[in-house]
Amino acid sequence: MLEALQLPFMQRALLAGLLVGALASYLGVLVVQRRLSFLGDGLAHAAFAGVALGLLLQQDPLWVAIPFAVGVSLLITWVREKSSLGDDTAIGIFFAVSVALGVLFMSLRQGFAPDAVAYLFGSILTVTSTDLGLMGLIALGVVLLAPLWRYWAYATFDRELALADRLPVIRHDYLLSALIALVVVVSVKVVGIVLIAAFVVIPAATARLLSQTFAAMTLVSVLIGTLSVLPGLAAAYLFDLPAGSAIVLIQALLFVLALLLRR
Amino acid sequence: MAAPAVEIERYSVRFGEFQALHDVSLSVPEGAFVAIVGPNGAGKSTLLKALLGLEQGLLRDGPTRIAGSIRVLGHPPREVPPGWVGYVPQVKGFDRSFPALALEVVVSGLRRHWPFVVSREERRRASEVLEKVGALHLANRRLGRLSGGELQRVYLARSLIRRPRLLLLDEPATGVDVVGEADLYRHLEAYQAESGATILMITHDWEAAQHHASAVLVLNRRVIGYGPPEKVLCHECLSQAFGHVGHAHQVILGGR
C-alpha cells in the first residue's frame, strides 16, 4: 500500500482527492444549510456541457468547462434573486438545459468519445500537475476568502437580518455560487460528473447530524470530507475499484453511522 | 424639541399591481411606544421593512415602485448606522434547522456577522442581556429545541444587545402565552425606561396595545388613525379599517 505512494500518479491522485474532498465539504456546509443540495448536481451537469463543448472545439475541456459552469452558476443565482421561483426550479431549468447542450455538443462531434466517459465517471489516476495546480489555486482562493464565512453563515442563518444589518448579501451570494462552480468543475476529473454532488452534500449532512453549532458543523464536514478520501483511495487501489465510488460509499457509511449514533 | 425618531412623508409602495402602502405620513417622537395594528395584508410588515430599508425585493414578481420619503433617526433608512436599529422579525420566518446555540444568536446581534468562536467578553454581555429577558437558562440550548416563546425572548435579547435607539418588532406576541406576553411588555418597558429608545411594534392584541403603547397606528394600506390609544381605537375608525368591527373587538373596546 505505502509503496504505491512512491508512484507520482498516486501522489497526485492522493493530493487531488484531499483537496477536492476538503473544498467540496467546506462549501457544502453552506450549500446544505441553504437547501441548495441540488446545486451540486446542476453545476456538475453544466460542467458536463462545458467539457463536451471543449471536446467539440478540440480545446482543453477544463478551460471551457470553467467559464461555462461559473456562468451557469451566476445565472442560477440571478434567477433566484430576480424571481420568486423556488431554488430547485431555477437549478432544475439550468440542469436540463446543460444536459441538452452537452448531449448536443457530443452528437456534433464525430465518433465515440472515450475521453467524455472519463469525465462522466472521473479518473483520479490521470490527474495532471496542471489539474493539481488549478486545484491549488482555487484552494488558495477559498482560504483567502475564509473571512467571508461569518457573513455567509449570518445570511444562511437569517437572510433578512443580514440585509437589515446592511451586509452585501447579494454580492456574497454571487461570489459563493462562483466558488462552488469552480470547485465542482475541478472536482469533475477526480470524482466524475455523476458523483461530485455527493462530495458537496454527504459530509455536510453528516456534520449537521453531529454538530451543535455552525462552526462545529463546518469543521466536522471538512474533516469528514478530507479523511474519507484516504480509505476510499486505499480501497480503490487494493481492490481495483473506481476511486470516486469508493470515496462516496465511505462517506455514505459515515453518514449512516452518524444517523445511528446521534442522540 | 428633539427630532422625531421616525418621519414618514407621503410614502407609497407598489409591488407590480399591488398597492401595499398608499400615501402614508407619520411622525414618531423619540421615546414613543407605537403599536401598529391593522388587518392581514394591511402593509404593517412592509412599513417596518421600509424603515429597515428592505422594501426593495420584498415581493419579486413585478417591479417595486416607491414614492415619498422616510427618515429614521435623522437618516434615510439605508444610511442609518445599523447598530442604532434593533429588529425582531416574525417567529414563523425563523429557520430552526440552523445549527446554533441561543447564545450565538444573541452574539450575532452584537457583531452583525456570525461568530465562529464566542469570546469571553461576548459571552458575558450576551448572558447579561439574556438574563434581563429571563432567558439565561436558554443560553446553551440549541435553536431547534426552543419553543416559540423562548425563541422570541432570544431574538429580543439579540436585538437589545446592541442597545438600539429604535426597536422594531413584528408581532412579537404571536405564539406566546399570556404570561409570556406580559413579560414581553415588561422587558420592553424596562429597556425603554433605561435607554429612552423608541419602539414600533406590530401586534394583533388590541387590548395590550391599548394598555402599553403611548400611541396606536391603525393601518390598512393607508393611515386610518394615529394617536393616543383611547382616541384611535374608537368604533368608527376601526369600522373603517376592517369593514366591520367583529364581536371580539367590541368586547375588547367596551362601550367606546
Can you walk through the features of this model?
The complex is a heterodimer of chains A (263) and B (256). Chain A has 263 residues and is mainly alpha-helical. Chain A is built from 13 helices and no strands. Chain B has 256 residues and is α/β, with parallel strands linked by helices. Chain B has 9 helices and 9 strands. A 6-stranded mixed β-sheet of chain B has the order 5-6-7-3-8-9, with helices on both faces. In chain B, strands 2-1-4 form a 3-stranded antiparallel β-sheet, with helices on one face. The longest helix of chain B is centred in the C-terminal third of the chain and has 18 residues, at 178-195. The A-B interface holds A 33, 81-84, 149-151, 153-154, 156-158, 160-161, 163-167, 208, 211-217 and B 52-54, 57, 59-61, 78, 82, 85, 87, 89, 93-95, 97-101, 104-105, 108, 111-117, 142.
Which key terms come to mind for this protein?
heterodimer; A: 263 residues; mainly alpha; 80% helix; B: alpha/beta; 3-stranded antiparallel beta sheet; globular; disordered C terminus
Write the layout of secondary structure elements.
The complex is a heterodimer of chains A (263) and B (256).
Chain A: H1 8-33, H2 38-56, H3 61-82, H4 87-108, H5 114-121, H6 129-144, H7 149-157, H8 159-164, H9 169-191, H10 196-210, H11 214-227, H12 229-239, H13 243-261
Chain B: E1 6-15, E2 18-28, E3 33-37, H1 44-51, E4 64-72, E5 85-88, H2 102-111, H3 120-132, H4 148-160, E6 166-170, H5 178-195, E7 198-202, H6 206-212, E8 215-220, E9 222-227, H7 229-232, H8 235-242, H9 247-253
Parallel strand pairs in B: 3-7, 3-8, 5-6, 6-7
Antiparallel strand pairs in B: 1-2, 1-4, 8-9
The main sheet of chain A comes to: none
Shape, principal axes of CA atoms of chain B: globular
Number of helices of chain B: 9
Question: How would you classify the helix and strand content of chain B by structural class?
Answer: alpha/beta
Note the run of SSEs of chain B as H and E: EEEHEEHHHEHEHEEHHH
* Class by SSE composition of chain A: mainly alpha
Instruction: Determine the N-to-C terminus distance of chain A.
Output: 37 Å
Give the overall silhouette of chain A. globular
Number of helices of chain A: 13
User: Taking strands numbered 1, 2, ... along the chain, how are they ordered across the largest sheet of chain B?
Assistant: 5-6-7-3-8-9
Q: What is the first-to-last residue Cα distance of chain B? A: 33 Å
**Most extensive interface, residues per chain?**
A-B, 28 and 31 residues
Detail the poorly predicted runs of chain A: none
**Percent strand of chain A:** under 5%
What is the element string of chain A, with H for helices and E for strands? HHHHHHHHHHHHH
Based on CA atoms alone, the radius of gyration of chain B comes out at 18 Å
Helix content of chain A: over 70%
Kindly state the number of beta strands of chain A. Answer: 0
Quaternary assembly: heterodimer
